[in-house]
Amino acid sequence: MNPKITRFLAEQKPATPCLVVDVDEVEARYRALGRALPQARIYYAVKANPAMPILSRLVGLGSCFDAASWEEVSLCLQAGAEPDAISFGNTVKKVSAIRAAYEAGVRMFVFDCREELEKLARHAPGSRVYCRLLVDNYGAEWPLSRKFGTTLESARELMLAARDLGLDPYGLSFHVGSQQLSSDAYEAAIGRVATLFTDLSAAGLELRMINLGGGFPIRYREDVPEIDHFAHAICHAMTEHFGNALPEMLVEPGRFIVGEAGVVRSEVVLVSARGRTDGLRWVYLDIGRFGGLAETENESIRYAIHTGRDNAPAGPVALAGPTCDGADILYEKSRYELPLDLESGEMVDLLGTGAYVSTYCSTRFNGFAPLGEYYI
Ligand SMILES: Cc1ncc(COP(=O)(O)O)c(C=O)c1O
């Protein structure tokens, strides 16, 4: 548990549920990634946590930004980011959003189909564009693949078409899935990108950039490979495929930058056996799937959960949120244990909740107030 956050919680006793993020830790993670992968420019994936104290700190550190919407572009600009440090990285964009970003000076956009490319040609003329490839998300605890990206064959045609449409065909991107535990996924994806670089070069089109996406994992209940391990695998694959003629490299980390910097404090609302004979206690917290813990769907992301007395005798529990929705269950199968004498009113801390929690929070489902947020 982060000592700065522990002190804040002890002194301030904020109302729960709340998220507390240590912004110095965000900086430390940004710097760690920069050290591990100095060849790559970091485009922080704003969607992971768009809070202004995070964006401002990252602007000060010289970060670039991957924005998913005009609203995120606008937040980055408010935080002081230059428009040319922003990539509009969502393959699905409203025309009004493309126009607003273009008018604000943004000149880098992603696409994965002809229709989006034509929108860009019309509403963001001359911009640098990159095509997202569909790659294997095997090994990711929060996969993304099916919804985005296109095949090598189609990307080839689209990049040539981009040039004909007056756009600047800049490069290619992929995302190996979030909380990706295997560096093989990056190596395989780089191999695919390299094939297309070669193929397009033969067709007279020299691409300049490869966007390696996000996906770098953080520790939840179990250790994960260090960032240096991923950096080493990526550099090895890049050199193997591109030799000395390395293209510009971009990364779009979200979870890695902010995840471990955040803790959710929650109150136990009820501990109940509900007359069941299997002895499994149900622990209901004041935060659940709708309060921000959406990534517990299918028990995909399994947060480390601590009470103030982690050495007390413990037994198995199922964990659920406070709403009347039957889907509001966090964990039934993932073997969580909490103290046997846990009672309502006690506090529990969910670690590693700095990413993809504050923004997944519903506004007033069942009347519950949205998650409180503190950036310290
Ligand atoms: C286009 C894009 N880039 C970057 C990210 C950040 O990924 P991660 O949080 O796994 O680093 C995402 C996550 O959804 C994404 O969709």
TrEMBL record:
<dbReference type="GO" id="GO:0004586">
    <property type="term" value="F:ornithine decarboxylase activity"/>
</dbReference>
<keyword id="KW-0456">Lyase</keyword>
<dbReference type="GO" id="GO:0033387">
    <property type="term" value="P:putrescine biosynthetic process from arginine, via ornithine"/>
</dbReference>
<keyword id="KW-0663">Pyridoxal phosphate</keyword>
<feature type="domain" description="Orn/DAP/Arg decarboxylase 2 N-terminal">
    <location>
        <begin position="24"/>
        <end position="259"/>
    </location>
</feature>
<dbReference type="InterPro" id="IPR029066">
    <property type="entry name" value="PLP-binding_barrel"/>
</dbReference>
<dbReference type="GO" id="GO:0005737">
    <property type="term" value="C:cytoplasm"/>
</dbReference>
<feature type="active site" description="Proton donor">
    <location>
        <position position="324"/>
    </location>
</feature>
<dbReference type="InterPro" id="IPR022653">
    <property type="entry name" value="De-COase2_pyr-phos_BS"/>
</dbReference>
<dbReference type="InterPro" id="IPR022644">
    <property type="entry name" value="De-COase2_N"/>
</dbReference>
<dbReference type="Pfam" id="PF02784">
    <property type="entry name" value="Orn_Arg_deC_N"/>
</dbReference>
<dbReference type="InterPro" id="IPR000183">
    <property type="entry name" value="Orn/DAP/Arg_de-COase"/>
</dbReference>
<protein>
    <recommendedName>
        <fullName>ornithine decarboxylase</fullName>
        <ecNumber>4.1.1.17</ecNumber>
    </recommendedName>
</protein>
<comment type="pathway">
    <text>Amine and polyamine biosynthesis; putrescine biosynthesis via L-ornithine pathway; putrescine from L-ornithine: step 1/1.</text>
</comment>
<dbReference type="InterPro" id="IPR002433">
    <property type="entry name" value="Orn_de-COase"/>
</dbReference>
<feature type="modified residue" description="N6-(pyridoxal phosphate)lysine">
    <location>
        <position position="47"/>
    </location>
</feature>
<comment type="similarity">
    <text>Belongs to the Orn/Lys/Arg decarboxylase class-II family.</text>
</comment>
<dbReference type="InterPro" id="IPR009006">
    <property type="entry name" value="Ala_racemase/Decarboxylase_C"/>
</dbReference>
